């Protein structure tokens, strides 16, 4: 790539099961000049997320042959709109490319939060990932101090953020599931979980019951299938489940895992199960900032991120995230 060109990643075909590198192409093209009302942004960091796998199956979010969508953090290089000035740091959704043309309503200027707040925070703990965890805990599960919590897929971006934030919110016993012994150790030794288990080691319901023998008050559930069934079984009366995703079915949308066999326990135990989309709760971002930013500044709140260096490795980072190779949020440094 030269200084007057940009590269975009495009999906060329639909996957059958787990995606493969041949489904993506890298396209080099001239660097565009901003039109009136737009700004040219050089992307600095890109987010690769589980929902991107689901997006690969339909035209709803990604159209074959077109540049792909994803969260990105970038710096304005040139602008023809006074709302976006050269040098501004902005968040936008035109990732999977080295540069992007954005309009003011497509970008959000990143506030200067001072020393101690790394750029990666804006795509992890302070971004959509952290906001998903915060909203799930506070608005959907309504976690109260002293209450016991289960987090599925706990070693990923949302899961580690949920663990960190739950501790700040005064959670009681904190239990997580993950996909390897390495991740289990990370949760208990680094993130602050009281117990964690590898879901490959047996029936999830039995593993969760062993980790939380006295039951749980709330769950942040992002897997579905067997994990959701286990959460329902472990919850006490009047428990709450914040349902944030279903990664267990992303590679097989046509044959998803069966619904929980204990679904009627929602009635018997007066459990509330509520799904949510973080885009409907952007007004909670300032609350998240108030909770997290002072602790990021003083170093008491670490970031859980896995950063892959180089735009040319963005597909590798995405597929690695789907294989569970990351600890915390998966990012790409362009």
Could you walk me through the main structural features you see in this protein, from its secondary elements to its overall organization?
The structure is a single chain. The protein is of the alpha/beta class. It has two domains: 5-117 and 303-333, Medium-chain alcohol dehydrogenases, catalytic domain (Quinone Oxidoreductase, Chain A, domain 1, Alpha-Beta Complex), CATH 3.90.180.10; 128-279, Rossmann fold, CATH 3.40.50. It is built from nine helices and 15 strands. The strands form three sheets. Strands 3, 4, 5, 6, 7, 14 and 15 form a seven-stranded mixed beta sheet that branches. A six-stranded parallel beta sheet has the order 10-9-8-11-12-13, with helices on both faces. Helix 2 (128-140) crosses helix 3. It is globular, with a radius of gyration of 20 Å. The two termini are 12 Å apart. The mean pLDDT is 95.
Quick overview of this protein structure:
With 334 residues, this protein is of the alpha/beta class. The protein has helices at residues 51-55, 128-140, 157-168, 181-191, 204-211, 226-234, 265-268, 285-297, 314-322; strands spanning 5-11, 24-30, 39-47, 72-79, 89-92, 99-102, 107-109, 149-151, 174-178, 195-198, 216-221, 235-243, 272-275, 305-309, 329-333.
Order of helices and strands: EEEHEEEEHEHEHEHEHEHEHEHE
CATH topology of the largest domain: the name is Rossmann fold
Number of domains: 2
Q: Give the CATH level 1 class of the largest domain.
A: Alpha Beta
State the distance separating the first and last CA atoms.
12 Å
Main beta sheet, described?
7 strands, mixed
The portion of residues forming beta strands comes to 15-25%
- Output the number of helix runs: 9
Mean pLDDT: 95
- Please report the total strand number as a whole number: 15
Shape: globular
User: What structural class do you assign from the helix and strand content?
Assistant: alpha/beta
The CATH architecture name of the largest domain reads: 3-Layer(aba) Sandwich
Q: Catalogue the unreliable spans.
A: none
CATH superfamily of the largest domain: NAD(P)-binding Rossmann-like Domain
